[in-house]
Structure formats: C-alpha cells, structure tokens
Predict the 3D structure of the following.
Amino acid sequence: MNKGKSDMEDRSRQLLAAHVKKARTLLGQFLDNHGVRLPVLGKAMEEFTSGVFELPEEAACKAGCAYCCHLRVGVSIPELLVIFYELRAQTTPEGLAYFRDRIAGTEAKGNTLTEAFWHTAQAPCPFLNRQGRCLIYAIRPFSCRAYHSTDVAVCKQGYEEKCEVRVPCFPLYRATTDMYSSVFIKVLAEKGFPSYQVGFVKGLDLLFKDDSLSGRWLEKKDVFGRAKL
Ligand code: SF4
C-alpha cells in the first residue's frame, strides 16, 4: 500500500474514533439528564437518525431492490425497544397481529440468530412487502441504514447462490452510520444495563410473546439473552 493511501486511511480512522467518542459523550450526558426511559431512548435514536448522512448517489441501491433485506439484522436493545414501541403506537391491532405472525413464521423456519439461516433460507425480513419496500422505513434499525452496495450484481449473486459474498461499499459511510448502534450498546453497558447486540427478528418475537420484557430490561434485568448475537 502506498504511503499516501495509508496516511489517508489512518486519518479516516482517527476521524471516526473522534466521532464515536463525541456521540458516546452526548448520549451519556443526555441519559444522565433525562433518565433511561423509553421516550428518552426514542428521542436519542431520533437524534442519531438525523445525523445519518445521505447515502452517496454512486450507491447501487434503489427502492424495490431488497436482496439485503434477506440477511441477518443485528440491533442494540434500545433500538429494539424503540422500534417495538413505535410499531405498537403507530399500527392498528390488525397490522400488529400481521407483523407478530410474520415474525413468528420466520422464527419457525430456523435459527434466525445465525448468518447461515439467512444465507440459505432466502427468508425475507418480516417487514418487507411484496414490492420490496420496507414497511418500517422511518424507524428501521441503524444496520439497515448503514448497509448498502456499489454493485447490485454481487448482492444478487449472494441471494441466488445462497452464499456469503463480500458486498462492495463505501467503508466510512457504513462505519459512521453503523456506529450509532454500538454507541447505544456501550453507553448503556456503562450505565449498568445488560447491553449487547441482539437478533432483530428474534428480539421482536420475544417482545411480541411477552411485552413485560421491555420494562424488566429497563430495571436492568438481563431478559434478552435468548436473542443475543
Ligand atoms: S427492517 Fe426494513 S430495511 Fe431492515 S431488513 Fe427489514 S425490510 Fe429491510
């Protein structure tokens, strides 16, 4: 690797580290000031979401292309709780029953915590509609916002051949967008909450079956171990 390129990469890493540090400090202070409650976590997620950059126009991703919505999605527990909370607040009882059943149906197909399941099952995310659109686009997880490709042929190959492929992307975009999830994990762990990455579908399935998990986690009980990635 030539020196100019490696200097640029070192500088990029420094900039990203500074960005992460700032986000951790801001989230920590925000939670210190307002307490760790669902509406507060929702507000923090909203603030982070507004900090996500627009996907570069050179990305190959287009509305209706959804190969990546057949891959495993990992989320922090605050993201999981906020999405579940918003889903319940914004969806009709019939709509909620539809999502609950789709999530349970996906869970019934195999172990959704493994990458192998998603690579081989060609199972759509329970929030993907027939037109390849995300039904919770405005509140989707950070990893969904971060994921993108500069070559749709590679995504298609992974889906059709049921194998793991190395999807080309803009690394700094992906890292800066994806970091919000890990910032949530680290800050909540520092505050004494059981905090780790969980499988999105498995976590929602647990919540649909027992919505007391949300309140118990906010009391620092470790109730999401079965969804841990
Ligand atoms: S939440 Fe939306 S963007 Fe994320 S995998 Fe599911 S359908 Fe795709």
Summary: Residues 3-227 form one domain. The chain has one domain: 3-227.
